């Protein structure tokens, strides 16, 4: 079923809320990044649903058909490119399939998987958010008339960033799973990039490079873990 099933009347877009009547499924493991999406959807008139992994997203898509899916490429249980490929070829097709990532190479990966568009992180500009979605809609579904758009960026809740740090601390505390080191390096790089946290972003990048080159990672893990704990202890403001 679609998310509009059961509604007696679908709201029509307005000049200030051009996505009114649409539902956006955000597949994103970062609460900080997802809070930015929540604010963008709220100001655009769209409803938002969230899935934090591939498994959760697939459960949702088995029951509902959103208007838009925004899929992060780095997820804890696999690559978002897998889901983009599935959603872009499913019938009936989701109207708009978008990828998102803070990695420079990810845009090409998203398009190769079948995405209609791409959001480089951080996603915080309302005009960019709305224009990207609307430009990817079928012509008959694009809202007509002038739109009033603010260029002011959204500001996600700092508590959401702290939630991401708690998640990272839990993963880093699992010494037995080497594969998760690759995930957490990518996760922290993306979150820190979105939040403008240069120190943590640099440390996460160093951990990713050490993993890719097959070097010992004890020092890099300790550095990343220390920075994460500082943010959990509120010793660093973002």
From TrEMBL:
GO BP annotations, alphabetical order: phosphorelay signal transduction system
SUPFAM superfamilies (UniProt xref): CheY-like (SSF52172)
CDD domains: REC (cd00156)
InterPro entries according to UniProt: Bact_response_regulator, CheY-like_superfamily, Sig_transdc_resp-reg_receiver
Response regulatory domain: residues covered: 23-136
Record keywords, A-Z: Phosphoprotein
One Pfam entry name: Response_reg
Modified residues (4-aspartylphosphate): 72
Descriptive protein name: Response regulator receiver domain protein
Lineage: Bacteria, Pseudomonadati, Pseudomonadota, Alphaproteobacteria, Rhodobacterales
